[in-house]
Amino acid sequence: MKELFKLRATADYLFDRGVGRALFPDDIQVLKSRGRIRQVWSGGEPLCSIRASDGFIVLNRKGAELVHRALKPPRLRVVVSDEATPFVAQGKTVFAKHVVAVDPEIRSAEEVLVVDSRDRLLASGKALLTGEEMIAFKIGKAVVVRRGFGGE
Predict the structure, then answer these.
(1) Cβ contacts of residue 46 below 8 Å, gap of 6+?
(2) Strands of the sheet with 57-59, listed across from one edge
(3) Domain ranges, residue 131
(4) What pTM was computed for the model?
(5) Position 139 pLDDT exceeds 90
(6) Are 91 and 57 found together in one domain?
């Protein structure tokens, strides 16, 4: 299936080598609009959407969980303080002052996983700063959370 190959290659490029196979099993369902892939589902659950402007992958809860399992810490992770954990899990923005650890290779505008100190997945979102900037800065937004995955 040509679409599966393309999706896996895109995931490997965006997240890391090997993530494509973990994120997109063989049984995916692809929803298209105007001939382009818009959503990917597996087992009746949405895995991700494909951003129309650039073709990048935007993770849903199930997709974020699969990427989280596929990547070893600290890859693509932003670790937040315990005081920020419940707010981030509700979908609130991550501010730089609450970032306690981060993958130094994160680039601005990259999809990231927001976790607590025990590597429990809290949310997924878009990085506004590089990994090094998230640690260095004490004011401002670090990650715009797309989806919070529930409070404690």
Answers:
(1) 39, 40, 60, 62, 63
(2) 29-33, 36-42, 45-50, 57-59
(3) 77-148
(4) 0.93
(5) yes
(6) no
